[in-house]
Please model this.
Amino acid sequence: MSSLSAAFGLGGSDIDPALRETIFARFREKTGRMTSSTSTTTPSKHAFEARVADVKAPKSDINALILDYLMMEGYPMAAAKFSKEANLQPHREDPSIRARQEIQHAIHTGDIETAITALNELDPEILDKDPQLHFSLLRLQLVELIRQCNGGDINPALEFATKKLAPRAAMNTDFLKDLEKTMALLIFPHESLQPELAALLHSDLRRKTATQVNEAVLLRQTKRREAAIRHLVKMRAWAESSARTKKKDLPDRIELGLHGDDNDRRDGTHENGLEPMITT
Amino acid sequence: MARIQSPPILSQIRVARNYSEQVASLRALKDEVVGHAQRKEKWVQQGVLESLVKILQGNRPPSSLGGKESRSYTGHPRNLTEDELVRLQSLQLLASFANGGPSFLGPLHAVGAIPAILYNIFPLENPPQIVLTALRALCNIADATSLAAPGSDDAGALAETLFLLPGYLNAMYDILASDSTAAVVQEQKCLVCQLISRLCKETNQQNTLADAGILDALATMLASFVVARGEVVPRAEILGEPDGLNEMIPDPAPRGANLAAVLEAISAIIADSCFRAYQLICSPTIMAVFPSAEFSPSANQTSTAWNALEMSGLSSHRAKNPGAIDYLLPIVPIKQPRSLSSQLAQFPPLGFSLSRENLSQSTPTFSGWTPNRFDAGSRNSETEAEEAESPLIPWLIHLTRTTEGLERVMAASVLTSLFKAGFANPDREIALGVLIVPLLCQLLRDSVKEKEVNPATQTSAFVDQDTAVEWAIVERTPGVLARLVADSQPLQQAAHDCRAMRMACTMLKNTYEPLYTQTAPRPWSPNPDRDVDLSEGLSTCRVGPPGKLPIYAHKIKMRENSLKLLAAMVINDECRKALDQDIVPYMVESLFPVPAKPKSGKEKLKATDKVSEVILPIDNSPYGNNPNSVLIAACHLMRAFSRSVRDLRTTLEDNGVAMPIFRLLKHPDTEVQLAASGVVCNMTLDFSPMRESLIEAGIIKVLCEYAHSLNPGLRLNSMWALKHLVLSVENSLKKHILEELGSGWLVRLICDETEDEALRARARSERRGDPNADDDEDMDTEGGGGGGYQDDTTSWSSKYWMWTPKYRTPCPPKFAALRAQSPRMLRAEKRLQALREAELNPTRKARTDDLAIQEQGLCFIRNLMGQPSASLMEMVDHVFEEIGQDILFDILASKLRVKVLHPFTRRYSAGRDTRVLYPQAKVIEAVIYVLVHIAASVPRHRQLVISQIDLLKLLAQHFNSKDIGVRGALCQLLTNLVWQDDSSDATACGQRAHELRKLGFLAKLETLEQADSELDIRERAKAAVWQMKTGNS
Model:
């Protein structure tokens, strides 16, 4: 446990606090279960829980999962620290992880031009072969331009839209709709927008686009779209819901056990297993 | 023109002061063009491609096309030097331009981009990133080519450069054989595999790839997947030790390795060749992970089930000695089909089993490869025709069952190649029908169901990754299934049970949904007036017309493959009966290069009175123009259809197939002509209703012209069709056909290979300039003895051929030596050489072609004289007149003689100076029937036959022929010869009978009458004997 906190404490510069908390909690919960599986046995236990308790997840697997998450989501320093502290075999440096992090960062800060240049430097084929992704990025760039010219000169934004976005939008109705919506930002005052338009100015759009870009890069390089742990979470949700529709004998609620035993009751809203942090 | 206002970036690129400045401007350009089709066009028009190629040419890697590698390729990405960065950027830009689609192919070729790119694929001289980008650029060019309009197809040229030049072959080998686990190397391997599977289509390229060791490198990659999946045969390293194979087991496949790509490349190289299939099977790494050994685990439910099946008589010989891999497969009860039972009778009786005794022991036991048994086995191997099936085959079945999507299709494809080449046990056929066919049909069913295509994909020049993979699966599956079930009744039945027919029909129908946007639409441009006229300017700066949309290419491929699947199934009577008549118009439309809306036969007749006079639209059809591949597939389907007399007279006639086929017969492409002539063979039969209209349309002239063709297949098919045409027509027409064909040419076709010697020599000199052209030699056993790896891998000649992996694969010398002497390896090498000889020796192939054509030529003469019998005498005389009586008889006699060939004296031909060619039963039968027809004419002609003493003596040797046809024909001939027309012929007839008796024919006939195994022959002989005796009295 201390090794883990050391890893995150030192490498925390590139990891957001919420995530760190999640990983911590998950790790704590798992190790806790492994060390104290006998003591938690209570007489009222459901048969399912007894079976759950029987399953031993090897620590090395959990560590590999965490490392995979850090690598895939683009936290190179945390990954390096973690693998060192958790005594995993020194893994190969993924050459793209740093580049991915830079691209993400650029998108998060609204510097789309840098992001596109970096992406082209990493692998020009990504944008060349994915018009959808390219359009998303360019539209985000347009949003940023509009944001910059708020109330001032709208010519840069107009010119950008004409030259870079309009030729694409003419060929694809989805693109056209998106472009029209974005252009509406030029007309209406930003303070009193419809929720639909306001969403464009929200930082969620940046985050969404950043995730799209990250997934595209990952898919191209590792043939995987997302970290293994996300897959596991989805699979758990699917397994639970299909077990429930088939009326299998299950406890009413299956806790994720993310926040330790005492916190379980409080977290009851997410009983389908879809934990909000991970599914965003 | 557009060059006048050269933008600043371009001039910076051209006249950069130093590398870093150049890199910066190249980077800026990259950001400009990536993802922007319009701007790519603009830059090309300003001549940027030429500058890029110049940069690449100016910055060649240190020593390209270098000699033998001493270093091995590690593939660790390193930091690039500045000049390398310049190259990397330029290559990325070229790849991006190639991504723009077919319209950029013209300027790319004009500036010589491909050679410039190719300098950068040598993995030993270039950093891995550069190799990767160069390979990507090549792949993009290959992709763009597949969308280009037919005619501007440059894939062939690229394939020839890449696959026939030793330098590039070595580069590809080095990449594939690298044991680096770096991600970038895995991607390189994947791209090389893609290049191979996309471009390698010609037989000579496939052979060169196999000879250059690339097939073995791919086999090693496949073996590494076996290791990674943990499916190596237990104790393989011990079993491989005596053969020096134990060191050959590769490391497990690293992360990022792409199984589907490897399988697809293997399948592209093997295609339909026994030789290359066997080369995969006995590739050392495959032999190392898959030693053939019997395997008996201590207690296993599977083996218990096996024993149970065996007791109930539902298993066969193979199931008695299962290999380890067989335990991974479900047990398939084998009802022995009647056709197989005769073969199985040769196997040892079913009661004896080694494995059952071994069951009692607790440890797994192997038998079959203990040293003692091994030695004994190798001694006997000379006589053993079949060796044990490689566990690769059950493993591929297992792989197909346990993988998904593209991997499943490609595994099935490789499996199909091995099965078709005959390397699987006979009882695998049933297993494939139960285990593999339903899986492939399931893939088809999934694809037919998921029909809704994203509207954006309908018009987009790009498809997303998921759709692309899905399409790849759907495109390939019908083709693989078609190959698998072709010529196999049980498998056709299995596919039929899985409703493959119905799915193939649905797929074919779907491809005829009109598609109104076929080329990528031109994007809206903010300043349209500056659009430059596309037809102007230098070729290096001229952007070509846009290519087809990916969805269009997808549809056409689907059409081709569903037609192939239908053709493979329709052969089967039961499948044909189940076929919905609605689908036939779609098949017929596939015979038109520019198809119209598929209509049923009646509708069509209503619309146009005479189909042949319809003026075809020249432009694009909304249903998608049919390229040659579709036309050929449709012809094969029609041919399969025309095998059924009923369908020939109804379905094909009703749907007006004759004229489209005739038009295809005159198609400029030889392959299409060949396919069409195959259909014509059946359509010219005398009971075909289409015969008249074909003759009217002038088919005779076309066929006679093709009978003179250089292509042996075309010669054969046209002679075949002409043979059918001359049957039961008027004498004037018969004479006309003979005149059109030219009697001199007919003689050359049937006589003793003189013409074909010349043809062959010409073909040979075209194919290679090899002065040592091999002739009538069997394979050399001593050819593979010594020597090292030779660079000249393109030679066909067997004595120069070297099985490279035996000598080349890197491993400690001790094992290499062991391997070189291992009886198992020697045996494999010997068999490989025999297969290679049988497949690649042009002389042998030419002889087979010749014999087939000779047979058809003789049958042509036979039919010329044959029905209607009233005209017999006139036609016999006509033939004698045209060909020359003596010449004809001489030719006929020569066909019956045993031929002794004297090969040139060569150092390898020791111990075997001559080669004997026995006449073939089919040819003998044809000869006899020609005589039968002459003898059926007037007594004068009968007398002529009788006077050919030599000929008759030769005939007498064939009474004990194994072929029923020959014996039957002989009886017929003798009956005819002693036939008595009227009383005036009586004395002559008696004389003839006397002559025949003198030659000993009566005795031979009587032997046949009494002792022949066939009732039919005994009856015919009885009639002939009776005739001879009455004629004599």
Remarks:
- Chain B has a mean pLDDT of 76.
- The radius of gyration of chain B is 33 Å.
- The interface with chain A takes residues 27, 30-31, 34-36, 38, 77, 92, 95-96, 99, 136, 183, 255-256, 258, 455-456, 459-460, 462, 464-465, 521, 523-526 of chain B (CB under 8 Å).
